[in-house]
Amino acid sequence: MAGIMTAGLSHPVLAGGIVIGGTRVFYEDNKKEASLNVKNNNTENPFLIQSWVDTGDGKTRGPFIVTPPLFRIEPLEERTLRIAKTRNDLPENKESLFYLNIRAIPPSDPASVNTLKLVVKTRLKLFYRPRGLVTGAQDAYKKLRFQLTGQTLTVENPTPWHVVFEYLKVGTTTLKQADMVGPFGQNVFTLPSTERSRRVTWSAINDYGGATKSETRAL
Predict the structure, then answer these.
(1) Do residues 144 and 178 touch, judged by C-beta distance below 8 A?
(2) Is the dihedral angle over the CA atoms 9, 166, 138, 84 positive or is it negative?
(3) CA distance 189 to 167
(4) What is the CATH number that goes with domain 137-218?
(5) Domain boundaries, the chain
(6) Cα–Cα distance between 154 and 168 in angstroms, integer?
(7) Could you point out which of 68, 93, 150, 158 has its C-alpha 20 to 30 Å from the C-alpha of 129?
(8) Which helix (H) or strand (E) holds 96?
């Protein structure tokens, strides 16, 4: 059974103390499913938990089913979400990205009709890895290619894995808009006119939710 690969460094917390047991999910195709724990740390109130996977646009459902899709979680109870693939037509030569949505719905108070009920949702990246790509991702960030033309930085990823940045800097400029670069893809960033450095430094988020060692390269 495939488990979520993540570090216990930080876990998303939803309404009223609902804790999600990871920051990302990796679905390895050589396993039957992936799993993720959800815990209700609230000592008094139950919640409804609703979960589904989308393709990234927030509307189109992804080729995965989450069970149970809707359930009640009691105070201090811990439950497991199980994620199974429903199609076999995903690319085999690269990693695919989807999003796992988890919504925590608090209980209603029948005695107070004017109470505002706050429903909180979190989205976690769900990476699907074909059978031939279940190893090697840990070094993908080291293989990124960079090209600086004027004040334009191009980042190219020649690997079949997503590289999610912890940070990306040119000189003293941190590129806050740098999130990730997809398999065999590239991103383009514009540097401020005051930045004249020809050196790029970056770190990535590894499979366990921690930061890799930083890499530095001359441009």
Answers:
(1) no
(2) positive
(3) 13
(4) 2.60.40.10
(5) 15-133, 137-218
(6) 12
(7) 68
(8) strand 96-105
